[in-house]
Amino acid sequence: MFSLNLSASLGASPAPVDASFRGVRFDCLKSADSAQRDQAMHEYPYKDGADVEDLGRKARKVSLSAMFWGKDYQSRLRQFVAALDAAGPGELIHPVFGSMPQALVTDYQIHHDADAPDSCTVEVNWVEATPRNPFFAAKKTLPQVDAISSQVDKLRQIAGEAFAKAQGLVATAQGALGRVAALRQQLTATVGQLAKMANQTAAQATDLLSYPQAFVAQAGQLIHSLADWRFGIQLDIGPLPALKAAAELPSATLADWKALRRRVENLPATVRQNIGPFAAGASLSVWSDDQRRIDAMLQLHVSTQLASAAAGIFDGETRKPTLTPPALEEIAGDVRSSLQTSIDQWRAALPPEDAYPLVDGLRTLGQQVQQGAAALIAAKPPLLKRKVDAACSLRQLAHLWYGDSGRAEELLRLNPQLPQPNHLSAGTLVYGYAR
After folding, report:
1. pLDDT of residue 336
2. 196: CB partners within 8 A, 6+ apart
3. Residue 53 pLDDT
4. What are the residue ranges of helices labelled H in 231-266?
């Protein structure tokens, strides 16, 4: 804290300094300003001292001594008191530091002295208010969205290289002709089954065993088509560049997410079970190690597809919020569960030294998805469960709670269980945001 007595000299009377609040000027005799930083202390048993984490500066506090004097001091005092009593923050012109746009009055005291007629002093305490986050998050893209997209591309590249390395070792192994033949047929059959499930025609490759990256690319494209995720994509309409316009598809709902999850759920097991015996060489059977690598590759494409879809949802939520905090938690939980399945399969399919980069990347991706959902949830007001006091409709309830009847659509999204949204009875429990 520092305290500054603004006097002309030690032996002279105080020299007032101009200052104002909400445009009302006053003479300032003394200023005292203070600020404090917040810390979090982490202490551990049997260890001296503590880890101290700086959590930022708390609100700045300002104390000023205002003076009003002269025959008309009472009228100016009334104007100043009216400015102090007004609700909300206002602009304070500090006599030393200048403008403080968001200054909130905490308390004030008015002093009159019989030895000083036609004058008074007012002791006022302000606290600096910082603008809060706008309703339902910022309009800028979440940093986690770009991080998720970058991590997905990186993971697919690492997985493709690890898969190609393992397949190359099988192809060059001594005395494993039967294993090589069975693996070649299994790769071709897997691509064919994925194409069938996606209602597409599989591209004919010369040899998926000799070119494992071709298998990785085809499997990724077919799983992407099978997921059929179109929400959040912008379509260009118009034959010429000058006539093109962006048309956004509707925002994704929780039902859309659940439909996507059902389409790709247990995909590796489904593909494996639907592959029938080979017409030529039915006696050949793929080795369990080879099948585990195929399943792990398919599961990684499923997990990264879910992560990419979640990133698209998070990006859409920053522009047009529609999902509730529980829905965002469910989406993040589904992605993390799928990523954990992928981690387990890669650990079983590859040696530890080859699996580690993939496992570490999958963990990072799961953390990014969780952070993206947490950032969106933190930007929303708290979700409360309130009781309706009297019979009304959702539109009337939105006007009563928020002063905005247009937020009835928001209340309807938060309360799909209501049988008659336009006829709410007294005592009905309704979910709504705190503000």
Report:
1. 94
2. none
3. 82
4. 254-264
Type and span of the H or E element at 24: strand 24-34
Contact yes or no for 60/128 (Cβ under 8 A): yes
- Return d(Cα 46, Cα 48) in angstroms, integer: 7
Q: Say how far apart CA 382 and CA 432 lie, in whole Å.
A: 9
266-307 residue pLDDT tens = 888 888 888 865 444 444 567 888 889 989 999 999 999 999
Calculate mean pLDDT across residues 129-154.
68
pLDDT value at residue 364? 93
Q: Does domain 2-128 have CATH number 2.40.30.200?
A: yes
Sign of CA pseudo-dihedral 220, 223, 227, 230: positive
Q: Looking up tokens 């939980």, which residue turns up?
A: 333
- Write the CB contacts of 238 (distance below 8 Å, at least 6 apart in sequence): 244, 245
Characterize 227-238 residue by residue with b for buried, 16 or more Cβ atoms within 10 angstroms of its Cβ, and e for exposed: bebebbeeeeee
DSSP state of 257: H
Decide: 50 and 42 in contact? Cβ < 8 Å: yes
Residue 283 backbone class (left: φ over 0; alpha: ψ -120 to 50; beta: rest): alpha
| pTM listed for this prediction | 0.59
Q: Is 116 left (phi over 0), alpha (psi -120 to 50) or beta?
A: beta
CA-to-CA distance for 252 and 232, rounded, in angstroms? 7
| CB contact set of 372 (below 8 Å; sequence gap of 6+) | 142, 144, 145, 148, 310, 311, 314, 332
Mean predicted confidence (pLDDT) in 145-164: 88
Q: Where are the domains of the chain?
A: 2-128, 143-379, 383-433
SS3 label, residue 357: helix
Of the CA atoms within 13 Å of residue 3, those in its CB half-sphere come to: 3
The strand ranges marked E within 142-262 are: 234-237, 245-248
Name, in order, each residue with C-beta under 8 angstroms of 123's C-beta and a sequence gap of 6 or more. Answer: 63, 64, 65, 66, 108, 109, 111
Locate tokens 């494993």: which residue?
176
Q: Which has the higher per-residue pLDDT, 170 or 174? A: 170
pLDDT of 10 over the 90 cut: no
d(CA 396, CA 362): 47
With the CA atoms of 223, 228, 230 and 231 taken in that order, what torsion angle do they form, in degrees rounded to the nearest 10? Answer: -90
The residue ranking higher by pLDDT, 87 or 3, is 87
Q: How many CB atoms lie within 10 A of CB 27?
A: 18
SS3 90: strand
